[in-house]
Design a protein that fits this description.
alpha+beta, Heat Shock Protein 90, 3 domains, eight-stranded mixed beta sheet, binds adenosine-5'-triphosphate, binds magnesium ion
């Protein structure tokens, strides 16, 4: 018998280890995106919480998310309904969603870690405020988190205190972080970081921005990307809808693909990453959020299953695969929401749907190399940009059929004969000054017609 107090090995995590681990493999930008995702989940819930298909026209213009990034502080503020006191007490601050937690409607959030991970990554003095409507009344609270004191208080108690607070202007959440961590302070001091963040927001939240949502960074609203595919002439993008049922829950899938920009005129461009090439590739969208953008790697099939690796020649191709479900945990997103889970059976099932349009484009760009450049360019110009929301349903991408001429292999003939004899033959053919090569060709044709006959 073991002594009673030694019969269990303590495996509880320490707070310090936990904070270090959860913040390790995520970028600052993705942490900020986690906070934006939460605001959007609030807005989407208030707006009705439907599948985020392209055809859905939910208006998000009443909602605004403002982000401030200063060298010594970070803040994000929204009017997206706030966190209720019940949710704050039981669930919002828990590390990881509880098994029995209600799944939100068509949310981006799934794991129950994003907000906590984000604020820990950014700094060590955190203040989270919420104002929400409780039976027609506005109620507010705040959750201050002093990370150093929380760590020093030991590993027995992981809770945060909830305190009374003044109302925010409208139901919503405001998160302020000061005492920035070194990496955050450095990044936030750089205009480049802010510029890149704006650019990434414009792309990855394009579907929400299109529905009127405002996302402001440093007081300036971000304009979303206009995602378009070209239609016209002999070009037509594909758009197909599918429905799956997983664990009794519906998953909606939409695939769009086609020409986003005309391919490079130079049929064998060097590897320079120009703007068009930057936008080309596959996009994966989960509950409205672009989690993988302009992908040219094996994650979206390039270089696998007889599907060549990405080459700048394929510039101009764009494909989107859009998943939505009431239960976000059924979708193939990773915890950082910056990639797809390539092992997800759902995602794998759609590989053929992604492969077909990619292969059609590869074949088209191969064939166009053999045609007159002006001709293909003229044809491509006939196709005009159409917003993805307006693309008509069509099961496969339509591209010009370029008949590739079979080249007949050539043989070179080289021989020497006495010059007087050649001149005599040239004279017999009607011209003593005929070039030697011409004498050769004419006599070849003469002998061919005589011995082989007409073709
Ligand atoms: N800005 C906000 N507006 C409304 N509710 C919020 C907001 N921020 C957080 N919440 C609430 O807090 C909960 C916890 O957020 P957190 O980001 O930690 O996890 P999650 O969103 O559930 O999952 P994930 O880890 O995938 O992001 C959310 O589910 C939501 O209920
Ligand atoms: Mg979240």
């Amino acid at each position: 018998m073991l002594p009673g107090d030694k019969s269990k090995a303590n495996a509880n995590p320490t707070k310090a280890f936990f904070v270090r681990m959860i913040t390790r493999d995520i970028t600052l930008e993705d942490c900020i995106f986690d906070l934006i995702d939460n605001s959007i989940d609030g807005a989407w819930e208030l707006a009705g919480g439907r599948p985020m298909s392209l055809a859905d026209d939910t208006d998000l213009s009443a909602y605004k998310i403002s982000i401030e990034i200063k060298p010594d502080r970070f803040s994000i503020h929204d009017n997206c309904g706030g966190i209720s006191l019940d949710d704050a007490a039981n669930y919002a601050f828990t590390f990881g969603r509880k098994e029995d937690a209600e799944t939100e409607n068509f949310s981006i959030g799934v794991y129950g870690i994003g907000m906590k991970r984000a604020v820990f990554k950014i700094g060590s003095r955190i203040n989270i405020r919420s104002t929400f409507i409780d039976q027609d009344d506005l109620l507010s609270f705040r959750v201050p988190v002093e990370v150093d004191a929380w760590l020093a208080a030991g590993d027995g108690n992981w809770d945060f205190d909830i305190e009374e607070a003044e109302n925010l202007e409208a139901p919503g959440v405001q998160i302020d972080v000061t005492s920035l961590n070194e990496a955050a302070a450095q990044s936030f001091d750089s205009p480049r970081f802010v510029q890149d963040l704006r650019r990434a927001i414009a792309r990855d939240y394009a579907l929400h921005l299109h529905r009127g949502l405002t996302i402001e960074v440093e007081g300036k609203p971000v304009t979303g990307w206009a995602i378009e595919l070209r239609h016209g002439g002999e070009f037509s993008p594909m758009r197909a809808n599918f429905e799956e049922e997983i664990e009794g829950e519906k998953v909606f899938v939409e695939v769009l693909a086609g020409m986003e920009a005309t391919p490079p005129e130079d049929s064998d461009p060097d590897g320079d990453w120009d703007d068009d090439q930057n936008r080309s590739g596959w996009y994966v969208v989960c509950n409205g959020r672009i989690v993988l953008a302009a992908d040219k790697t094996s994650l979206t099939g390039w270089g696998t299953d007889n599907w060549p690796q990405w080459h700048p020649q394929y510039t101009g191709f764009m494909g989107l695969i859009i998943f939505s479900s009431r239960r976000a945990d059924l979708l193939p997103l990773t915890t950082t929401k910056r990639s797809v889970d390539a092992t997800s059976p759902l995602y794998r099932r759609y590989r053929p749907q992604m492969r077909e349009p990619s292969k059609a484009w590869i074949a088209y760009t191969n064939a166009r190399k053999q045609k007159e450049k002006v001709e293909v360019v003229e044809q491509e110009k006939e196709a005009k940009a159409v917003p993805i929301y307006e693309v008509a349903v069509q099961p496969a991408v339509v591209l010009p059929q370029i008949a590739t001429k079979k080249r007949v292999p050539e043989a070179n003939v080289l021989y020497s004969v006495p010059k007087p004899r050649l001149l005599k033959l040239a004279t017999a053919l009607g011209n003593i000054r005929m070039p030697y090569k011409e004498v050769g060709i004419q006599t070849f044709e003469y002998a061919y017609a005589d011995l082989v006959g007409e073709e």
